[in-house]
Amino acid sequence: MRWDIFCQIVDNYGDAGVCWRLARSLTSLHGQEVRIFCDDLPTLNLLASGVDPEIKRRIDIQTWEASHHNSRHPVETPDVVIEAFGCDLPERYLAGLLIAPKKPVIINLEYLSAEPWIAEFHGKPSPQAHGIPKYFFFPGFQANAGGLLIDPVPSEPFVSPTNIPASLKTSWKLLRPNTKRISVFCYPGAPLLKWLEDLGRLSENFDIVLTHGQLEQLQFSSGYPTQTITLPASIQLISIPFVSQDEYDWILSQCDFNIIRGEDSFVRAQLAGKPFIWHIYPQKDHAHEVKLAAFLDLYLEDTSQELKHAVIAAMTWAMPSQWIQSIDAWSAHSKAWRADLLKNQADGGLAARLMGFVA
């Protein structure tokens, strides 16, 4: 089948990350033809860099504007159109679908959520005035939701510590032996400097792997944007260049703890099987707090009260000294959670469920 995916980037990388991972799953695992129309090609291309050229060659990446010309080519009508995260289709593109001899199915691909109500709305029709069938598709953790994007599953050769991506070789040489590693990818607004200062008071060494732009964000939030940040000697900051999606997956697997943001990184942190803080995108109406609580209800369902308190404290930016004593139990739980996730998504997860739904 031919698939058109429309992606408007709101959260810098997360939206593009999901669309790219879905496209590569559909092509490499299911042999589908996929075009992505994106309003921020530089970001999408950065995420897709470093991928097997054979995978990239199969995906037709186009500018958002390029979709406007398709009204003159009704022959190229796709079988499935995906509106990622509720973005509206360009009017001229939609006009082309209306005059096409064969109508596609339109899928409104929603944001991932662990909230129980999504199962009731997943797969339901969304009647449109134009008459082209459209459906809601909700990714989720539950068996009766749309599943997770699990491809590629981090394998032993992939996560090998010796398999250092070329772009990270210089940074990785700075890591100290027998030192805990924490990767950081969060939004402005997180109390990161205070968090690192607290970490520096613990009797342990930490190497902090800062993703592209985090050091500048940290300097700016410290109020001294042009000065070097001074932290205890036990804390070493290592700033890395912008990396592709696969290289970031590798980083998550090599760290003992990960601070992540955005939907794609959220799933990858869980598949890395390590403790993590999900810095969920803050929304004015506090909807993000409900979303985080729903995930934690699921994530911590079978854990001890002590671990529940520790993880909830960590996820809501309590200082590390308040919960670090539970880190070993959290690490064990992270591995068990990863195994459960893979078992629950054994049908192939989101891409496979989408294929089955469309069929």
From TrEMBL:
<dbReference type="InterPro" id="IPR016633">
    <property type="entry name" value="EarP"/>
</dbReference>
<comment type="function">
    <text>Protein-arginine rhamnosyltransferase that catalyzes the transfer of a single rhamnose to elongation factor P (EF-P) on 'Lys-32', a modification required for EF-P-dependent rescue of polyproline stalled ribosomes.</text>
</comment>
<keyword id="KW-0808">Transferase</keyword>
<keyword id="KW-0328">Glycosyltransferase</keyword>
<comment type="similarity">
    <text>Belongs to the glycosyltransferase 104 family.</text>
</comment>
<dbReference type="Pfam" id="PF10093">
    <property type="entry name" value="EarP"/>
</dbReference>
<dbReference type="GO" id="GO:0106361">
    <property type="term" value="F:protein-arginine rhamnosyltransferase activity"/>
</dbReference>
<protein>
    <recommendedName>
        <fullName>Protein-arginine rhamnosyltransferase</fullName>
    </recommendedName>
</protein>
